[in-house]
Amino acid sequence: MRVYLAGMESRERAEIINTGLIDNAFFSYYYVRGKEAPTTLLHGRPKIGKIILDSGAHSFFAEVLSRKVSASVHVKKTKTKETPDQYMADYIVWLKKWHHLVDFFVELDIGEIAGQNKVLEWREALKKAGLYHKTITVYHPEVMDWDAYIAMINDSQSKYIALESDRSGRARLPYLKLIKPAYDKGVRVHGFAFLKREGLEKFPFYSVDGSSWLTGTQWGASLVAIKHKISQVRFIEGKPELYALSKEVDDLIHVLDPDLKLQREKRLEIAVKAYKLMQEHYTELWEARGIHWQD
Questions:
Q1: pLDDT value of position 70
Q2: Are the CB atoms for 29 and 54 separated by under 8 Å?
Q3: Which of 47, 74, 82, 128 could cysteine-pair with 86, CB 3.0–4.6 Å?
Q4: Full-model pTM
Q5: What is the CA angle 179-282-161, rounded to 5?
């Protein structure tokens, strides 16, 4: 299982990128577009193992919250001003120029807003542009039935599709049922924003992503790997757990260093190492159960 680090667009991420610790990174087109060059991607590409670029579909879903629909990633308050067609046209132009910087990119999966026929039309445009071989297509149950899902699997040139995470107020998707036909056909399945421990033990995703590794810079906490278990720890001076954890995690004491830059770097490094352990643990778990994804 691959665990992708989401929220990589900020220039502040250059510090952790330079360590060479990041195996998998998840960028958003919405935040790297509109510049002469995508500097964070250009900087990160030589140092990061695999990169997925999200389309930024969440920028449209922020406009229709009253309809109780949401994107496969966390909804932001910022709204895009473009029409879906213009946004997609610009996305294709950008991808033609910069697609070599990413391993895969996600389609603009807003069938709930633009209609699924429009999404199918955009897929054809990606094929015509010679980009479909890197496209991750996405299943949404509100606009796709089972036959449409199987057709999407069969049509995938990248051999990579994605499923949305749990939504508030809606029953969990039947992930096992959805993953099995893809796995049988050698098509990898990504789970958006899916880092729930109980879920990862039940559902054999090829890859998942999450942004909780950034909590060390946002809320004074971080994911920490302790004896093959991932825990969130708040770094508060004098807290007893800090000293117990320092025996398990190298340089943990530096999260309280007077140098704030060093604090931030160490907290991110600790979280990245936790993601690595999570990745190794669930890969081993599912391989022991007979699930062997092919890269």
A1: 43
A2: yes
A3: 82
A4: 0.87
A5: 30
